[in-house]
Description:
By secondary structure, this protein is of the alpha/beta class. It contains 7 helices and 5 strands.
Amino acid sequence: MQTVAYLRVSKTNQDLDAQRLSIVNYSKFKKITINKWIEVKISATKKEQDRMIGELYKLNKGDIILIAEISRLARSINQLTTIVKDLTDKGITIVFIKEQLELSNSKMNITNKIVLYTFGILAEVARDLHSMRVKEGLQKNTSRKKKKRVFNKLMGKGLEIQGYLELGLSKRKIAKRLNVTINTLDTYLKYFYENELNNNLDVTLK
């Protein structure tokens, strides 16, 4: 019988220290000797062979796998339940330390299945929300940069725009001529009247 610790982070620049500490503390408390450490730095979206899940399938009946938390083993609830069932059917015990959940062939009763499914769903939802926030942040950042570039195109053209307005050109035509939206034009004009116009007048008067 051997005990294996499985650790995984999604990116190469992330460290495994928190997971390692959790597993070490648990093994000391339970007086378990860890025979092998499997450390992986790759997203859970990658194939099982890349996440070294195959190493877990090589274990034998009576072996124990220690994992800091459920989300480290699989990304989706389907992945999680499949891997757990395959391993426990072989007589391997899996311990999820954070969730205080120990699963084995003899302990895969309805209660533990519900607990596993619940924690798995929570982990999946948390990851999806995090991914959504990251994407939204990137989109907002890209949008801000784009608006800034367009806004910068108008810098120094305040008097030119003012001249077009005095000639009776509509803002729609001016925006089209300058290849910007009307909203961007209005935003720039507000900035121009509050900041640049006085500076330009000072220069003219001098």
